[in-house]
Each structure stands twice: as C-alpha cells, then as structure tokens.
C-alpha cells in the first residue's frame, strides 16, 4: 500500500478456496501451528502464501520502524501505524506494508492469529493481498502487499497534477463494488470504516480495497473512526457493523467520487432529493462526464444511504448497476490517472548508504560525477608499486593522457575522457581503479551500459574490496534492467563501506 491514510491504514488480501496443508517454510515465514489451520497457497501474480513473520524480519524490513517509512498518519483517528518496508530474504525481496497495532490491542495472540488467518484466506485482484502477520510478545502486526500509487483520498481531495477523470471514477466504483461482493460471497461481508483512504492504487494504477478493513483495529475496538456525520445511523444506535452498514459506507465513497469532496450524506441526500445533481458534481470535471451515467450513480448512492438498512442494495446490485457504465475498458488505469506506470522502487538498503551509495541508488549520474571529481585518486593508493626504471617517457605520456582525461571528465566532455582514459589503460604500465570507475561513468552518460559494466568489473579486479566499483556495477546493472542484481550489488557496496568504517579497507 502506499501513501497516507488517516483513519484507515494501508492494506492487503487473498483468495482461493483450495486450502493445502502448510508445508515447511523457511525460518523467515513460519506457519501458525497451534490450531492446524490450513495455509493459504500462493496466489496469482506471485503473491506468496500467507504465513507468520518474525518481529526481527519486519524490524529489518522497515529500518527499525523508521518514521521515514510511515505511510499512514497516526493519531487518535488512526492509532495503528502502517509502514512500508522491503523484505530482506534473498529469495523474497518484495515490498510490503506493515500495520503495527498499539500495545495489547489484541492481548490474546491466538485470537489475533485466528483473525489474521481468517482475513488471510482471501486473494483477489480487487484486494490488496494480506501476506502474513506477527505475534511476538506484545507485538501484533499485519503484513500486506505494498500499493505504491497512493489512496483515493489523495487523488480526489489532494491532487497536484490532475483530478481523476470520469471514466476512472466509474472504474473505481465498480472495482470496489466487486471487492465487496467477493468478500460477501466468500463469507466475510463485514468491512470496518470503508472510506476513500481504504481504496489504494497498485503499480498499474488499478484501484484495490484494503484488506486491513476486514479486521478491527483491536479486539474490542470501534469499527468506525471517521466523523460521525459519515457513520451509518444504525451503528450510532447499537455500535454494531452489519453488511448493510458496509453498503451505507460504500454510498459515501460514491459521493466522494461524484463530488470530489467529502460531503456529509445528509447534505448530499437533500441535494439529490431536490434534483440538484449537477450542483453536487465535481466542478473540476469541467462538464466532461455523462449526465445520464452520473444520474445512475447518484441514484445508486441514494439507495445505499437509505436510513433503513433493509432498503439498501446488496453487493451484487452494486456490481450489476456499475458494470454497464464502464466506457473505457481498454485504457489502462495509470493512463486515466495521469501517472507513470510504477517501476520497481529502490530496495530498502541492508546497510546505511554513503553519499556515493545514495547517488547510485537514485541513479543520479550527475551526483556520481561530482563525487568522483572530488574524490580524485585517493582510493588508488597502494594499487601500484612502480620501480624507478618504470618512470620512462612512456610513463610520462601515459600520465599525460590521464591528465587530459581528468580535465575532460571535469568539464563533462565524456567522449574525450573515454578516449584519453583508454590511452592510459592500453599502455598497461599502471593500473588505476579510479580510471576504470570514471570511464564507467562516462560510458553510462554516453548511454553505453554494457561498456560501463565491464569497466566497473575491471575496477573491482584491480581493487576487490572497493565499494565504488560495486556501486558503479549496480548503476550499470540497473541501466540494463537487471534490477535484482543491481539491488544485490548496491547492498554489497554498502556492506563494504560499513566494513571500512569499522576498520577494514573498502570505500
């Protein structure tokens, strides 16, 4: 899941009714053994089996639950914080969202595990999949797929580049209706505090419903934490969530999609009854919507918001009403959202990154260039043992070629720098890892990642523990779309830097 949620937190899910007995998993993902619960098998798209995580796993993944990794706001309305993180198991480096409950929100670990397993049985393309949970001492955590493209609330209420177009709003409404229908059909119709913060966008920009809402915030916790003006009337009477309460909340999401604002249902119903539908419509759509389609959605919202629960539609009615309205089925969601298709984000480093490491992780070639200019040749010390006899005219010519290369490198004349550094290297009397690193960057800046990778590997051959050689390989590998290898190389470089800071040689 990605981005801020206020009262709601980031989320996950799962489907598949074929339960197979949990087999031995690695130590990082241990099945909960106490009640013989069947494990959830891996789902579509490579979603792993639902399992138990150790607290150490999740602590490492979130950089010790760093404030920089928080993706949902905490506070009275959202006491359970959600972090993003990256699993560090070498066979599973996926991004995750980790919901960390307040201390003793679930005092009984078995009860928490049973609830988590209940939600963990769901896998569906309209849900953010629940991957696992953690019970460790007083710690209670849920682990979900990470949704990188923010929440519906962000795109509707806090947009920076463009608002959501009408066809995309219709898609959001349908997809969330389908998610609710799936959960209802599979025997889990209760959803706690459905709102625009619970709708997340995945790497393709497709809307998904957070699975965290299928579970309460605590054993005895309230099911709604939003403003009471948006709360189902029957919940105010008896404090209980029913399937009809979920439909009411879906109606408030429809109002959000139509108006682009968070309007209390009572106000919206007054406008609908007064036939002032156009006044409710989001002015940012600038008339780019079908009045007929909008009328259908408003009427559906009105039915969802009926005071008497029995007068509200069911989830199949939601899908049946919204499906015929879809008018751009072949246009990808990320195009309609106006965002770039999400590429794999850089991994959470296992070791703290230096300025060089940070620049390489960000693929910032300009910053790498500045660092190499400033570092000069201080890292070449000890890589050459020259006798007096080797200081020949040839040596002077070779050093002159390197000097010309350094001037060209400083002045960003990278093609000339490549030629001059090549003259230096071809003589072969003196080897310099820095020259290889500099020529590697020049190749990258000239869009020659293969040559850049070869030079970075040569730098490593000359100086096996030099982190810069590994960093340059990481950048070249990323340019070659070998992202897993690039991530591994980046971590190796950071480890070498850490080792050097503790007394070893390797920067």
From TrEMBL:
One of its GO terms (molecular function) is ATP binding. It comes from the Eukaryota. The keyword Zinc does not apply. Residues 20-29 have a biased composition (Low complexity). The keyword Ribonucleoprotein does not apply. It is a lipid-anchor. Residues 68-326 form the Protein kinase domain. Residues 8-19 have a biased composition (Basic and acidic residues). It is found in: Cell membrane. Residues 1-44 are annotated as: Disordered. SUPFAM superfamilies: Protein kinase-like (PK-like), TPR-like. Gene3D superfamilies: Phosphorylase Kinase, domain 1, Tetratricopeptide repeat domain, Transferase(Phosphotransferase) domain 1. It catalyses: L-threonyl-[protein] + ATP = O-phospho-L-threonyl-[protein] + ADP + H(+); L-seryl-[protein] + ATP = O-phospho-L-seryl-[protein] + ADP + H(+). Belongs to the protein kinase superfamily. Ser/Thr protein kinase family. This is non-specific serine/threonine protein kinase.
């Amino acid at each position: 899941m990605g981005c801020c949620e206020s009262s709601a937190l980031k989320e996950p899910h799962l489907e598949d009714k074929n339960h197979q007995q949990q087999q031995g998993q690695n130590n990082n993902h241990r099945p909960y053994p106490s009640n013989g619960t069947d494990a959830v098998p891996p789902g579509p798209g490579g979603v792993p089996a639902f399992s138990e995580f150790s607290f150490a796993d999740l602590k490492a993944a979130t950089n010790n639950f760093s404030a920089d990794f928080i993706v949902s706001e905490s506070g009275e309305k959202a006491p359970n914080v959600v972090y993003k993180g990256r699993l560090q198991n070498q066979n599973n480096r996926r991004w995750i969202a980790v919901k960390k409950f307040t201390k003793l929100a679930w005092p009984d670990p078995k009860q928490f595990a049973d609830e988590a397993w209940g939600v963990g049985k769901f896998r569906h393309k309209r849900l953010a999949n629940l991957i696992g949970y953690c019970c460790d001492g007083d710690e209670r955590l849920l682990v979900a797929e990470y949704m990188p493209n923010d929440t519906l609330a962000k795109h509707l209420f806090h947009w920076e580049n463009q608002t959501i177009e009408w066809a995309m709003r219709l898609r959001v409404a349908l997809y969330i209706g389908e998610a609710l229908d799936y959960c209802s059909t599979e025997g889990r119709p209760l959803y706690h505090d459905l709102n625009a913060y619970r709708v997340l966008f995945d790497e393709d920009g497709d809307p998904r419903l957070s699975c965290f809402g299928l579970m309460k915030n605590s054993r005895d916790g309230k099911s709604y934490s939003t403003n009471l003006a948006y709360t189902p009337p029957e919940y105010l009477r008896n404090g209980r969530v029913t399937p009809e309460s979920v439909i009411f909340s879906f109606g408030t999401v429809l109002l959000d999609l139509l108006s682009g604002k968070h309007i209390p249902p009572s106000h919206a119903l007054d406008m609908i009854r007064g036939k002032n539908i156009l006044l409710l419509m989001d002015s940012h759509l600038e008339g780019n919507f079908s009045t007929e389609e909008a009328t259908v959605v408003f009427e559906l919202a009105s039915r969802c918001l009926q005071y008497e629960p029995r007068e509200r539609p069911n989830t199949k009615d939601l899908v049946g009403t919204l499906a015929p309205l879809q008018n751009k089925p072949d246009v990808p969601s990320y195009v309609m959202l106006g965002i770039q298709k999400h590429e794999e984000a850089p991994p959470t480093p296992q070791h703290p990154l230096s300025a060089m490491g940070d620049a390489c992780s960000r693929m910032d070639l300009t910053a790498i260039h500045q660092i190499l200019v400033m570092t000069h040749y201080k890292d070449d010390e000890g890589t050459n043992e020259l006798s007096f006899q080797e200081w020949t005219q040839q040596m002077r010519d070779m050093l002159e070629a390197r000097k010309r290369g350094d001037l060209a490198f400083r002045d960003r004349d990278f093609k000339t720098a490549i030629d001059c550094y090549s003259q230096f290297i071809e003589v072969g009397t003196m080897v310099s890892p820095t020259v290889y690193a500099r020529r590697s960057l020049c190749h990258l800046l000239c869009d020659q990642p293969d040559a850049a990778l070869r030079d970075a590997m040569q730098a490593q051959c000359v100086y096996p523990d030099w982190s810069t050689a590994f960093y340059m390989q990481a950048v070249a590998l990323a340019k070659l779309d070998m992202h897993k290898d690039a991530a591994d190389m980046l971590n190796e470089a950071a480890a070498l830097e850490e080792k050097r800071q503790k007394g070893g040689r390797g920067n």
